[in-house]
Amino acid sequence: MEVIVSNTELIYSVVDGNPSGEIRMYVMSPYTGKLLDDKEAIDKYNNENRWGFEVAVDLGECDLKLISSKEHITNFAIDLAKHIDMKRYGEPIVVRFGSEPKVEGYSLVQLIETSMISGHFAEDTNRAFINIFSCKEFGPKDAAEFSKKYFGAKKMEYSIAYRDI
């Protein structure tokens, strides 16, 4: 497999699986150059008629009490869905597990009509990893900032991937 990387576009050339011979994934993160602001990100999504987009939010130096509270994580899923104007499908699923410190903590799944919100909370390192995937537009930076504030994080990075085939 050949990988071509530009500022915001990754092209994976594959031998089989796709008639055109390639899979395109548009990714923007602090490591690929300037992130688009919310309006630019939404405009790109709409103008290019993508099926969906995903925002991955990495939070560092979170408040340990908040990321280790099942109630707080459950409320986060409900409040985030409301904040980004998504319709929840069912209640959040929040489960604590992990056989070693690196993976011990809560994981979250919240189905939404347009896809899902998920999260993993690493108590050992006070970090949280949130993913929001939807075929309905929302503000990526707004969602990331909301998540940062909700968990009292001192550090935050986020990336955007436009999904289509």
How would you characterize the overall build of this protein?
The chain is of the alpha+beta class. The protein has a single domain (2-163), classed as S-adenosylmethionine decarboxylase (4-Layer Sandwich), CATH 3.60.90. It is 24% helix and 38% strand. It is built from 4 helices and 9 strands, in the order E-E-E-H-E-H-H-E-E-E-E-H-E. It has helices at residues 38-47, 64-67, 70-83, 140-150; strands at 2-5, 9-13, 22-28, 52-60, 93-97, 105-112, 115-122, 127-134, 155-163. The chain has a 9-stranded antiparallel sheet, covered by helices on one side. The longest helix is centred in the middle third of the chain and has 14 residues, at 70-83. The radius of gyration is 17 Å and the shape is globular.
Short structural summary:
Keywords: Autocatalytic cleavage, Decarboxylase, Lyase, Polyamine biosynthesis, Pyruvate, Schiff base, Zymogen. Strands 1-2-3-9-4-8-7-6-5 form a 9-stranded antiparallel β-sheet, with helices on one face. It has 165 residues and is of the alpha+beta class.
Category by helix and strand content = alpha+beta
Q: What summary fits the major beta sheet? A: 9 strands, antiparallel
- According to DSSP, the number of beta strands is 9
Q: For the record, what is the CATH homologous superfamily label?
A: S-adenosylmethionine decarboxylase
- Calculate the mean pLDDT score and round it: 85
Helix amount: 10-25%
Classify the beta-strand content into a percent band.
35-45%
| Text of the CATH class | Alpha Beta
CATH architecture tag: 4-Layer Sandwich
